[in-house]
Amino acid sequence: MSVSPTDMSLTPYSFSVIMPVYYEGPGVIPAVTTLMHTIKYRFELVIVYDKEDDPTVGILQGMSKDYANLRLVRNTEAGVISAIKVGIAHSVGDNVAIWCAYHVDPYGILNQMYEMILSGCDVVSANRFGKVMRFSRGGLIKKILSRGGNFILWRLVGSQFGDTTTSIKMYRREFLEKHPITTHAAGGWALSTELAMKAAVNDYKLGEVVLSPHNINLIRGLSRFKVVKFLPHYLKWVMYGIRNRDAIFNNRLIRRENART
Questions:
Q1: CATH classification of the domain holding 54
Q2: DSSP three-state, residue 50
Q3: What predicted TM-score, i.e. pTM, was given to this entire model?
Q4: What pLDDT digit, counting tens, does each position of 107-138 carry?
């Protein structure tokens, strides 16, 4: 069953976390419980599902009895991008973070990301490509594509983010309201790239938390990245960045090394 947005006056959350799920099954349990036990600020977890017969829904309904800040919302369409949009629309926090249902973070990087928001940043991104953690998690092909795609955005386009495509980001709600999401296909990486590029071009304050190898662990599975299908969406934002390279170059990013707490 879906849940309507809660009255903001009754829920003064520091931020909302949006988590799309799709047949995660018991794998969702460590992702949820880790967030619940590592985030030290008041937050809500809005979980968006596609289908009522997804066994993940029953598991989460049981968990919601223990976590009053966990809410389930039915996706209005299919797919992760729609799920993120629906989650944002149903969330009530002044800031919004995106989290993957198959990621466990035992060190609570969302704490650091929120603290950077408090310090004045408008968009804060995780970075999987620091000195210690050179590659994203997942299979070899996915690692190469992810690293290569971000390298092009960094060197050719001038993106200040070292990891433009990662979905793990936190946004001020006022930024999201001024820059509606236009991406309608591909995956969460495309939506993340769109918002990151718009933030850089429009002179928003950018922040980045560089991950250590301990921060993000995959519970199971890999991303469903399809090169031929998704390439046009990637190239769209590459060209957008090239056309606005001067604006991106003049922006600056605050980087926070090592998110371990």
A1: 3.90.550.10
A2: coil
A3: 0.86
A4: 899 999 999 999 999 999 999 876 544 444 55
